[in-house]
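Morning, I've got a small favour to ask if you have a moment. It would help a lot if you went through both lines with me. I owe you a coffee for this, so here goes:
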Amino acid sequence: MNTARSTGDRAPQQDEEGHLAALGLVLLMLGATLVRYRRHEPAYMAVDLAYALLAAFVTWGRFGPDPFTG
């Protein structure tokens, strides 16, 4: 009897948590960008915005019309 699970076999709850984590990271990084804007720190603001854009890409990949997760 083979009890090993393949790497692609995930519970639906785990997939939903990944979607919400990606969305939460986008919101967190947008908040960080706003704080950097208020403190007049443009270099750090650009870095936070870049992270927000990368997280948005991951979120789009998870929620989009053709999700990466299959």
User: Anything to note?
Assistant: The helical segments are 12-38, 42-63. The chain has a mean pLDDT of 80.
